[in-house]
Amino acid sequence: MEKFKILFYVFSSILLIFPLIVTAQKKSVDLIISGGTVVTMDAARTVIENGAIAVKKGEIVAIGTASEISQKYTAKQTINARGKKIIPGLINTHTHVPMSLFRGIADDLDLNEWLTKFIFPAEAKNVTEDFVRVGTQLGVAEMLRGGTTTYCDMYYFEDAVADETFKAGMRGVLGETIIDFPVADNKTNAEAMNYTEKFINKWKNNSLITPALAPHAPYTVSTEHLKAIRKLSDKTNAPMVIHVSETKKELDDITKQYGSRPVEYLEKIGFLNNRTIAAHTVHINDNEIDILKKLNVGSAHCPQSNMKLASGVAPIPQMLLKDVAVGLGTDGAASNNDLSMWEEMDTAAKLHKLISNDPKTLNAEQAFEMATIRGARALHLDKIIGSLEIGKRADIVIVDTDDLNQTPLYNIYSSLVYATKADDVRTVIIDGKIVMLNRNLLTLNETLIKKNANIYRQKIIKSLESSE
Ligand SMILES: [Zn+2]
Fold first, then answer.
1. CA–CA separation, 339 vs 139, rounded Å?
2. How far is the CA of 95 from the centre of ligand 1 (A)?
3. CA-to-CA distance for 200 and 191, rounded, in angstroms?
């Protein structure tokens, strides 16, 4: 009997200790997001119901079902995402973020008239470093609230754009604009190149900011200057962002001036490579699509901007057939007029169905892919972002699924592309840090941003009146 008693005590103490041993063996991480439908956008397009993600030091260290993750990991902080969608952060591949302050300044015009009569004069009179800071805060706040975690920009005073973006905790490929006429921050090409090199060296090892060179377009930057920009890009390894073949006028002018179509001309002068990001690529032919693919040039498709300025329709279905790295972009808020990637996805999918007269063209999954992993490829950042996979940076967005506009839900990609709106985004995590929690921005003051933007509205209106 005594023997049984001893055995009983030994057995019960093992039972008591066992959970402690298991807990002690659990790995400690910084953050666990648990309970939602995880849309990974990995190569197999894995979707995990009741899934979870573990994050440590800004990196995704584990991904699986909620029970698998809870058995293996403990976290300092846990976010309950039950009943929500967990998606990779959206990637806006083309913007001019400070132009948010010009939202609605002039609408319903073609690109040439819009640029020369309104945008260039308004920029000449108003763009200062402070303008750029206020506009960046406004645009970044809008993008974060809509679940965009990375954006590609080109503007002036890009060092201030980088500073504000970094302070907000957002990721960016940020290009200093180089253009062949005097602009707000630099009056000559030599000044612009000097500014850009310093800017690149300052930010090149930053965890969130990738500094870039941004020659405006083949029709506003000379061949000689484009070649010098490519040289500086080779020296610094920085990406190059450029508008290419946005309008029929550009196609005609470049063909007349250089005897080649824009993409062919840029290839001929040795400008294009696997660090180039070409915005728009609207008027391109099959040969130019092949060049983009061959040289691994990223492309930014901006359907709403192209529609609003009646610039034309990029041959996206053909580009996807040839697996070109094409992402989606909003372009600046002055030609859109918002920075919502949800609208771009929805518009892209519908526009190409209409144009091709085929509803099977550009399905919801392809549109979502362009806003995530293919967008990451367009920015040449697909090794670190664009999908929810072990080893990638933790850029994660939690989206509600129970709003009226999302009910009922049959197909996850259909719901994301055709029904979800920016307002449905709940929580945003970038590089493992929470920047928006339950719709509250943690890194930016929305009230102050709106107040400052409205002060600029008055200044801008005054500046345009005085020129008349
Ligand atoms: Zn643009």
1. 7
2. 6
3. 14
Task: Give distance in angstroms: CA of 71 to centre of ligand 1.
Answer: 48
Q: Determine the distance separating the centroid of ligand 1 and the alpha carbon of 44, expressed in angstroms.
A: 33
Is residue 453 a contact partner of residue 138, using CB atoms and an 8 Å limit?
Answer: yes
Q: Tell me what pLDDT residue 112 has.
A: 87
Q: E strand or H helix at 267, and its extent?
A: helix 262-268
311, amino acid identity? S
Cα-to-centroid distance, 331 and ligand 1 (Å): 5
Confidence at 12, pLDDT banded by 50, 70, 90: low
Measured in Å, residue 48 CA sits from the centre of ligand 1 at: 37
Q: Quick check: pTM over 0.90?
A: yes
Is residue 306 within 8 Å of 112, Cβ to Cβ?
no
The pLDDT tens digits for 422-432 are 999 999 999 99
The tens digit of pLDDT for each residue in 449-463 reads 999 999 999 999 998
Q: How far is the CA of 279 from the centre of ligand 1 (A)?
A: 7
For the residues 166-171, what does the mean pLDDT come to? 98
Give the three-state DSSP class for 130: helix
Amino acid (one-letter) located at 121? P
The Å distance, Cα 244 to ligand 1 centre, comes to 10
Going through 161-281 in order, the beta strands assigned E by DSSP cover 171-178, 209-215, 240-244, 276-280
CB atoms within 10 A of CB 209: 23
d(CA 247, CA 251): 7
Distances in Å between the alpha carbon of 313 and those of 267, 283, 299, 366, 370?
A: 22, 8, 14, 17, 16
∠ CA 120-168-429 to the nearest 5 degrees? Answer: 125
**3-state SS class at 287:** helix
State the burial class of residue 35 (Cβ atoms within 10 Å of its Cβ: 0-12, 13-18, 19+): buried
Assign 180 a pLDDT band (cuts: 50, 70, 90). Answer: very high
297 CA to middle of ligand 1, Å?
17
Give the model's confidence band at 111: pLDDT under 50 very low, under 70 low, under 90 confident, else very high. Answer: confident
Rounded Cα distance, 173 and 239, in Å: 8
Task: Return the structure tokens found at 389.
Answer: 């996979």
d(CA 183, CA 188): 8
CA angle 85, 90, 96 (to 5 degrees): 150
- Closest CA relative to residue 164, chosen from 193, 122, 130: 130
pLDDT of residue 204: 96
Rounded to the nearest 5 percent, the helix, strand and coil shares of the chain are 45, 20, 30
Residue 258: helix, strand or coil by DSSP?
helix
